[in-house]
Amino acid sequence: MAAPLCLLFRHSRAAWLFALIASGTALVISILLLQQVLATGLISYALGGWQAPWGIEYRIDTLNAFLLLIISSLSTVVLLAADTSISKEIPKEKHSLFYVLYLLSLTGMLGIVATGDAFNVFVFLEISSLSAYALIALGSDRRALWASYQYLIMGTIGATFILIGIGLMYQMTGTLNMHDLSNRLPEVAQTRTVFTAFAFVIVGVCLKLALFPLHLWLPNAYAYAPSIVTAFFAATATKVAIYLLIRFTYSVFGFSFSFTALPLQLLFVVLGVLGIFVASSAAIYQSNVKHLFAYSSIAQIGYMIVGFSISTVAGLTATLLHLFNHALMKGALFLALAAVMHRIGSVQLSALKGLGREMPLTMAAIVAGGLSLIGVPLTVGFVSKWYLVLALLENGWWPVAMLILLGSLLAIVYVWRIVEVAYFQPRVGPGELSKDSVREAPLAFLVPIWLLVIANVYFGIDTRLSVEVAQTASESLFGLSQ
Amino acid sequence: MLSGIYGLLSASFFVAMDAVDVAFTEASVGAGISTLLMFLAITMTERRDHSVRHKPWLALIVVVVTGALLIYGTLDMPYFGSADAPIHVHVAPRYINDSMQEIGVINLVTSVLGSYRAFDTFGEVVVIFTAGVGVLALLSVSRRPENDAKIDALNVSMHEQHLILRIVIKILIPFILLFALYVQFHGDYGPGGGFQAGVIFAAAVILYSMLFGLSTARRVINQPLTQFIAALGVLLYGSVGVVSLLNGGNFFDYNVLSDDPVAGQHLGILLIEAGVGLTVASVMIIIFFNFQGRKEYGQGQAKGDV
What we know:
The complex is a heterodimer of chains A (about 475) and B (about 300). Chain A is an all-alpha fold. In chain A, about 75% of the residues lie in helices and about 0% in strands. Chain A has a two-stranded antiparallel ribbon. In chain A, helix 3 packs parallel to helix 14, helix 10 (about 225-250) packs parallel to helix 13 (about 290-310) and helix 14 packs antiparallel against helix 16. The longest helix of chain A has about 30 residues, at about 315-345. Chain B is an all-alpha fold and about 300 residues long. Chains A and B meet through strand 1, helix 4, helix 5, helix 6 and helix 8 of A and helix 3, helix 4, helix 5, helix 7 and helix 12 of B.
């Protein structure tokens, strides 16, 4: 079971094919893991043969397995298009380094999710963030360096906060193992030290997940990174941070402590809703489509946080569903943008004029992804919003539910802007290339994009798998903590 | 300079708290290499700050709040060194009491790092490797022969000035390298191990290239080789895990490496420390070479323009 990860630790100058194989292997293994977890329950694996809490263990329950599946599948699909996409955006001699960094980043994320040891989380967090900074800085735009630097500063502060929190917890309990921590923390829960530890961990994780007031690093990082990197991170990175938030509040600190020590419910519901509105409104005014969708990502994180803050099984299910669904949508959208970037070299809104006729399949994918973002029935976006609103109503929070529906209206506005430009404006713009130079995106793009779009629709109609897994995961989280 | 002093001070602080291994690492990395890299970065840009236009009040508030919260958190901490603090009664006793039978290494820190928490250490090595790859991806400049010639000319004039330093360094370098090897293999018995040894080894190479020029140093240690060694170190570490997996144990279970569990542990720790040392040394060299290479590249171009 650790073998899946060690396979990825291969650092020879991996070319695309190797990266693809590694990522594909991880995908197959996560599918097997998920099946096994659903069938038999918790799996624990002691690394080094030392039982936890002395050694480090991998602890896979439904939640981990679900996340592992999301990350490895998205990574594999995105990699399919990577070869073509980076051929234009990254200088030739850096391609192999790009794949090494990509794999390292994937390793980091999988490691964070799989491990059952708090310090191990930090180590893998470092791996994934360091490689993320480098990947973003590889962007062809000079501003990518600045964006990466911003992210580096914010990310490092976040990671340091998490480390401080873990250190304080270790001091109070003498253990680093998450399961052991959750057993031993209640004894000392009333101390100021544990309270401080909790505050640091929460703030650190929120920095990483770009929760509304701490989101400033995200738009630039997404906009100036190489397109393929944006697709990968948008689909996975913030999901890992949300996982950490759920893991720490529910499993490590325990439900009752987390939601009584700080006014977490109120705090998160306010920040979540504010995030939805501020970020969606910001998205409307963007002229760069990558920026636009980056802001929309922040808004979507808002939805997940609202679901989280309800702190019921239904709410958490909605969050997990949205985690999965958002990965599908944003993966499709940013991949389609990567295709646009590949063909016309720009993702400014003005450059998209009339592109609906030149690249029908790619633009159709963007529209499909956009519809899913809005939450139109028959797409995954609808499913997760439906569950979220249901969970809110169940708890009697109808004003919040209203606000969320209003937030979706904002999504209509920003998606419509793209549709309008792409389909209803003639293809002549300033400094235009000759018309026939723009062709449909190559197959290497279309296949993964449409895989994701089809997944968007499929999981929007047949919700059994995703809902069932999300529900089992959140039930087991509540079972753990009550 | 101040950050270097800070590094040294915190190293002595760690010694006072009986964390000799950490102090060793801090002294070599915090006070040594990182200060050096800062200097290099400064020589590439400029010494003086631009005047600050905005007043960073928000940052001040955040720092004060964070600091206050940290101090608040210390209020309920167990007293330093108190025998019944949770960290002394839960996991640690097993490390202290049983590691001699289970692993047979005198230095406890090494057995915790190398065996009980081997996976964390592996992660750390990967972190260092990632840093090296990141530097390579962002800073490496493709070298052209004509530029090299200019750089060489520049170096000769620059390096002739430091005659005394050059002679002293020439005498010192063999001892530094020897010391690095000592630290590497003595990690089982006293403070030391792959991380510290790697840094010391790299320091010797860096000293040499500072005084004799990068291209001279490159003749001995070339870039592709260091890259290969960096990857090799991680692979060596990882393959120890895979071999123990193949021998029927868990990942990083050294007991199965040999008939005698303790001998297996010894072998495992020796190998992974070697992996750590290789990766750390070569990554440090990669980072320095790329920083310095970029600087000289810039100078070479400037000279070419004149």
